[in-house]
Amino acid sequence: MSSSALIDSTGAVHEPFAGVEAGNARLAMETASTSHADTYVSPAQHHNPIEMLSTTAHWSDGKLTVWEGTQISGPMTTGLALMLRLDRSLIEVKSPSVGGSFGQKGAFQLQTTLVAHAAMLLGRPVKLVMPRAQLFHNAGFRPRSRHHVKLGADAGKMVAVQYDADHQQSRSGNFPPRYHEATVQMYGIADYLGTASNIRIDTQTPGYMRTPFPQPSQFAFESAVDELAYKLGEDPVAFRLRHDTTIDPLHGKPLSSRFLNDCIREGAQRFGWERRTAAPGSMALPDGTQVGWGIGCGAYPSMTTPSLVTLRVYADGRTRYAASGHEMGQGMRTAIASVLLRELDLDPNRLEILIGDTSAAPQHPTSGSSGTTSVVSAAATAAAKMREAADALFAGRELSGNLHQRLLKVRRPYLEIEASQVGPGQDPSVLDALRHGGFGVWGPHYPSFTSFSYIAHFVEVHVEPRTRRVRVPRVVSVVDCGRVVSPRTATSQVLGGVVWAIGATLREETEVDPRFGGWLNCDLADYVVPVNADVGDIDVTFIDKPDPLTNTTGAKGLGEVAMAGASGAIANAIYHATGKRVRKMPIRIEDLL
User: SUPFAM superfamilies, from UniProt (predicted)?
Assistant: First the structure.
């Protein structure tokens, strides 16, 4: 326990966590002509992937093979080796498809070692599937968090932020309250003071859930920005546009790219924002349904991971690509294939992409906003190296046909290259750590620049006059994620993020049993998520301007930023519809009666 920790009357431990500071927010706040301060609350929420957590293990001929949907097959190998006292070379972990993950499968699961040990004792395959109720009580979850945000403004611009956050934490867990990682980068406010703390209580350790820190923090921050805009009599769109920047205020480094204002302008045009009337409660349908329009913006760090790649092209038409990466619905294999087929003349029907398999290549943990961008860049590097090797092999020969056919003509059974990649300015020694089960995520604060992805959401809500039920008939989301490598899968990521935000804002909360502290609604009958009837039209578009610094493809992270700021947009639209500001999620019927 930290020496500065406090224990309240309930026995909860309030433990300060390292915050962030830029400029002198206290002084700037004292001299600001206008300010707004309030507290916003985000509830505990649980992942609910359709497929359960499961582990299958097989011990044969002195080797252990584990099949599990996981984002961390490499570190899992190391963890199993330590727990079972085995050499890492005797363990293989295979996760060809993670399934729904969203952060839940980014940690070592409680059941994995038990299943592996059982397989070793029995000498036969063992499989365990965790029921949904146990998933609620054993796996990670999004913790309940509180956000006290104070904003100061002068001459129509924000000049200071004081922001204190805390969240629930287990007695010994280390999931950090990093709620300032994106808000400090949003609007170029030079004077920012962010503090945070853990509140240690008797619960299991919380963990990563899609858009882990910006989801609750940008609900709070974008709600506060909206409240300040109204206090100043400013249009919420025009107010945000006034805060363009090219500098990371926390470190003084240039931003690799920032097209948030482009997102806002494009979104406003596509949404028809000019038809909005400003006064809350001023828009309605003929039947009395209240209509509200709101905006919310978001940012998320764009990070990279190291990779070791083997690419082998066979004369018989096959291609085998093995690299780090975990397919969890983001379309990673599709993105890799698109790069390889664009850069090399290969047979697309016989392309094998091996990821999530420690027997094929060293595996780095995969997260939503570092996975695809990293593997796409690695694939481009491997393709360039393969072209160089082919040019050297075929030098001085005039050969027709694709790469497979040319190998056949020179009677070469295959051509293989190995390639590696690290992030901009990253120490190449991280590759040695990767070979031995380590990892080295890099960014968003690179040696010479800072890199974030950005998004702007425009939301229309309808509030029924008698039931007060909130509907979301349409959303426009515009994203700055650098170059879009795979438009179809990129669009799918944003659609999923917006639907998740609708659920997080209007439906989802894990209820606590006040008697015993356990979770009450631990099934899909009682844990309410959006269904098709809750989802209207979602219009997704991309700025699609390549980032010049992050990697060779110009891509930035997308999977996490897709959700950032959307809850704030929904809450802001509800205020515009009703004149009632709700500062906690989920926003329910009783909040609007």
Answer: Molybdenum cofactor-binding domain
Are 84 and 146 in the same domain?
no
Judge whether 6 lies within some domain: no
284: pLDDT strictly greater than 60: yes
- With 90 as the cut, is the pLDDT of residue 150 above it? yes
| pLDDT of 281 | 97
| 301 has a pLDDT exceeding 90 | yes
CB crowding 351-374: b at 16 or more within 10 Å, else e? bebbbbbbebbbbbbbbbbbbbbb
Kindly report which listed range (83-97, 213-227, 325-339) carries the lowest average pLDDT score.
325-339
Whole-angstrom distance, CA of residue 132 vs CA of residue 138: 10
Element (H, E) at 14: strand 13-22
Q: Closest Cα to residue 158, out of 252, 253, 224?
A: 224
The helix/strand/coil state of 252 is: coil
Take residue 135 and report the two structure tokens written for it. Answer: 């998933």
Boundaries of domain holding 117:
54-138
Q: What percent of the chain has pLDDT over 90?
A: 87
Residue 441 lies in a domain: no
The rounded percent of the chain whose pLDDT value lies above 70 is 99
The separation between the first and the last C-alpha atoms of the chain, rounded to the nearest angstrom, is 44
CA distance 121 to 127: 14
Lookup: tokens for 521: 């609604």
Please, which pLDDT band fits residue 2 given cuts at 50, 70 and 90?
low
Give the count of domains, the chain.
Answer: 3
Identity at 97, one-letter amino acid code: S
pLDDT of residue 582 exceeding 80: yes
Same domain, 264 and 159: yes
Residues 59, 27, single domain; the answer is no
Q: Is residue 8 one of the residues assigned to a domain?
A: no
What pLDDT does 437 receive? 85
For 214-228, what is the mean pLDDT? 98
Q: Both 278 and 410 in a single domain?
A: no
In a domain, 5, yes or no: no
Joined tokens for residue 363: 């595996």
CA–CA–CA angle 154, 156, 162 (5° rounding)? 55
Q: Is 194 helix (H, G, I), strand (E, B) or coil?
A: strand
| Lowest mean pLDDT across 228-242, 365-379, 415-429 | 365-379
Residues 424 and 328 in one domain: yes
Q: How many CB atoms lie within 10 A of CB 428?
A: 10
Give the DSSP H or E segment for 473: strand 470-480
498 with 391, same domain: the answer is no
Distances (CA, A) of 401 to 273, 350, 386, 405: 54, 16, 16, 5
Together in a domain, 281 and 184: yes
The pTM of the full predicted model, rounded to 2 decimals, is: 0.95
Length of the chain: 593
Give the number of other CB atoms < 10 A from CB of residue 115. 20
